# Entry
Amino acid sequence: MALWITDECINCDVCEPECPNQAISMGVEIYEIDAGRCTECVGHFDEPQCVQVCPVSCIPVNPAHVETKVQLLAKYHSLQGGAASPAAEPCAHPTA
Ligand code: SF4
Ligand code: SF4
# Structure
């Protein structure tokens, strides 16, 4: 699941620079998470970095964006600019 920021956010600015996917930005009143870019930090860290640093614990998972670890990893790969990484092709023509 992507995460989201509730209206308890105090705009302390500390989460934005911690996001490895540039998923956090200032919204109209409080910070927001772009669900299309949030991987729950899968691919980068073991724990969601924004949750680790938020002083008021206002970043729960977003039930509107249920995703499995596999889907989150696929999102991570797509954000890295590679489609589903074409794993190293086995050499079909070994040198004779
Ligand atoms: S969980 Fe990770 S990827 Fe998602 S918004 Fe927080 S820091 Fe960014
Ligand atoms: S760390 Fe928490 S309180 Fe601070 S800006 Fe981010 S969501 Fe808001």
Remarks:
- The two ends are 49 Å apart (CA to CA).
- Confidence is low (pLDDT under 50) at residues 84-90.
- Helices lie at 49-53, 69-79.
- The chain has two helices and two strands.
